[in-house]
Amino acid sequence: MNLASGSLLSGAYILALLSTAVVGLPTRTVTWQEYSLLILSVIGIGIICAIAFPRIWRTGPRPRLWLTASLIAVIALLYVQLRLPQPESNDISQFVSSSAQGQVVTIQGNVETVPRLTRSQKGQFWLEATQLTELESNENRGTTTRGVTGKLYVTVPLLQSTGLFPGQTISVTGVLYKPKPAANPGGFDFATYLTKEGAFAGLSGRQVSFPDENQESTWGWWMLRQRIIHAQVRQLGSPTGLLLSSIVLGRKAVDLPYDIRDLFIQTGFAHVLAASGFHVSLILGSV
Known about the structure:
Helix content: 40-55%
Radius of gyration: 25 Å
Keywords: Cell membrane, Membrane, Transmembrane, Transmembrane helix
CATH class of the largest domain: Mainly Beta
Subcellular location: Cell membrane
Mean pLDDT: 84
Number of strands: 7
Number of domains: 3
CATH architecture of the largest domain: Beta Barrel
Organism: Coleofasciculus chthonoplastes PCC 7420
Strand content: 15-25%
Pfam families: Competence, DUF4131
Strand order of the largest sheet: 1-3-5-7-6
Order of helices and strands: HHHEEEEEHEHEHHHH
Low-confidence stretches: none
GO cellular component, one term: plasma membrane
Largest sheet: 5 strands, mixed, barrel
Number of helices: 9
């Protein structure tokens, strides 16, 4: 295979990946019917190129190579569709209310992460949903409970998230919502972020309750991480201890004040707060 052939095949693969933006991936759920039209379009373009280009560009790639390039493009499209997380039929995102105000629901599930402080001073954590309870119509004030699946991005008032731990079963009352894509080019795309995390909806929580009041935390690596953070804060104080914990464990593991994070970003040293083996070895070597 010469350089021109390799460039054509590689370009077909890359262009096929980029073409998924035409149908709205990865910020929206695309049906197989829509995706099939994209695949048929790619095949059609490959056939047209195989017929037309050899007549115009006589020293260029042969028809067989153009057809091979279209086949590689189709494989790239199928690869994207198979690897991209898709909501199941009973995923919690399927029950988001279409009304502007949103319907108040109660979601029961298992906490996946230790709550973290958001920029808006709320507690945020991931919840693996297992049960949805919603009110019926105004005429009948009963409730409907159904089993659900899926991962939720949950935010609650800070005091409501205090003391939550991974593996704990809780119920959160609030309003479900679907994330919106970035409003400005290059801005933070919340919908894409959730999709990468395997989630398709968020929950703006108001109240956290506990079906089992006697739950005890089970051992996990998160407990060791919390002990390290507490020890460093106890010895160095705040925010110095939190800053050291961010360097050792990564900023995602520590509620480092946002004013300090912003200073590191503005000065171009945000990478210092990303935990890596190199950083840990420097710290251990210094100790």
